[in-house]
Amino acid sequence: MLRNSPEDTWHDHEPIVHVEKLVKRYRHSGTAAVDGLSFDVRSGEFFAFLGPNGAGKTTTISILTTTLAKSSGTVSIGGYDLDRQAKDVRQSIGIIFQNPSLDLNLTAEENIRFHVSLYGIYDYRPTYRMMPRAYREKVLELAEVIGIAQDIFKPVKRFSGGMKRKLEIIRSLMHKPKVLFLDEPTLGLDAISRRSLWYYLQKIHREEKMTIFLTTHYIEEAEEADRICIVNHGRMLFSGSPGEMKNLMVSKYLVIDAEDRDSLSSELTGFGAEPMEDGSLKVRFSESTPQNILSQIKTPLSFMRLHEPTLEEAYIDLVSNGQDKEEAS
Amino acid sequence: MLIQRELNAVVTVCARDLLRYIRDWKNTLGFSFFFPIAFLGILGGTIGQNMGAGLGYDYMQFALLGMIANLLVQFTMMGVTSLIEERESGFTQEIFVSPVSRYSILFGKILGGSLGSLVSLIALFIVAFAMGIPLSLAGVGSILLVTPVLFLLGGALGILLSGTFGSSPKAVDRATIMVMFPQMFLSGALIPVKNSTGLLSVFVHLMPATYLVDLLRGVFYRGTPVYGQVVLYNPMVDLIISVALAMAFLVLGSYLFVRSERNR
């Protein structure tokens, strides 16, 4: 249901982001960067949008955040139609771009003040002290939570990459967006800054119950997502939970070895055991545990390892299979 | 409520530009004094000393008014085109995802660029004072009276350049220079154009700054004996042409800019 006026209410059970048959063809480009994408994001969901370079992630997020015009398709966010109610869409979202979008000549607080004034939350005042008490308290509270309270009045040009990202998070939370878009937010950050940023993002997601729409190259960042959508060449390859993705795409297996390899091998004939390079045996299984296989083994084992598929393996599997199919066709 | 929000956005965009000028005061001051010294002090001074004697009016005062019109237009124009430079740093994205009209953003940039260019007006007055160019309080008043029109056309030109060449900051920089220098030499700012004929006369009348320079001189010299020697048209004609050009540039430039932002 689309909202026609602010009085119309948007209901939590409706998808907060609705994308249908979205297409984007750049000028002077023969192929579509986004080619008929359709998906929904539910309210409060942590939605990860994955794909290799050139998959159409940034194009999609740019369209959803109204900075790029689509070629065709329909999009609604928070019940507002992207074409007819772009301003309402912009009021409903927060975004952290791939590259920091801060004014380096201003202090951290001035960047925030500029943001809240543009979003019409507070009228612009030339100094922090002249801003309303509610603003001052909110800035300090968020700066404390995110961990840059000491630096909030310092020029942004002195900030590290991680601090800039944290400042962008504070800024994007000031107008209480319904959906927070994060376009590869940890790109270029060191491991410590990445971990710290993720800690705060997950905290915000939990405590504020905010819908998070994330694009990332780092697959491990999507492990905590409620739902994953994988795209390549502008088309959807997969949509489901991280668990579903692992189960669908990669089988689990057991690596075992014994002094008496011949005896072990003969016991596992019915399970399709494959010899590995070092002579140990790899036995695939689809049940939740390898109990069935282990119960058949009488030969004393010298080695045993259970291989749980990672999301990264599933992702690589999925993207490579998709590419192979496209090349074949 | 909606109007108040848009007005607040205009004030915010303008205030940010002013804050940036203040923070970057060394560059702001350096830039504001460089052009008056280079063009009025050195170029104007040389022309005045060697060729200004037989004109029948004070050449340096004539050149000062020409430089005021040209520099205020150019600085306002450059204040607006800074929006394109900021696209490279990603900051434009922050502005353009905010729920305010694109037109409010552009108007805020014009206002910010205009107020920022007032520094160069003060610099011009200081250079004029240092060079002993006669300038009465009434003369300063008449200059200030015309400045809103200079800002308007300068800002509109900036928006037109941003909309037309907004694909890259380099393209905008090149276009700014291509617009700036012909205006400087063909608008009659430093070199009188009253007697220009043929193709040069056509170029003179194609320069938007010609009408601004003439408007400023028309108001400044009104009622003085040299009025007929230095002024091309009635100030009202200059005003109508300047405002009409500004409106045309604003409408076309805003349309092209907003379209280029989203339609890639």
What does this structure look like?
The complex is a heterodimer of chains A (329) and B (264). Chain A has two domains: 15-241, Rossmann fold, CATH 3.40.50; 251-308, Alpha-Beta Plaits, CATH 3.30.70.120. Chain A is built from ten helices and 14 strands. Chain A has helices at 57-64, 86-92, 108-118, 133-146, 161-173, 191-208, 242-249, 261-267, 291-294, 311-328, and strands at residues 15-24, 34-42, 46-50, 72-77, 80-81, 93-96, 179-183, 211-216, 227-232, 235-240, 252-258, 274-275, 281-285, 301-307. In chain A, the strands form three sheets. Chain A has a six-stranded mixed β-sheet with strand order 6-7-8-3-9-10, with helices on both faces. In chain A, strands 2-1-4-5 form a four-stranded antiparallel β-sheet, with helices on one face. Chain A is elongated, with a radius of gyration of 25 Å. Chain B has one domain. The two termini of chain B are 33 Å apart. The interface between A and B is medium-sized, with 32 and 29 residues.
In short:
Chain A has ten helices and 14 strands.
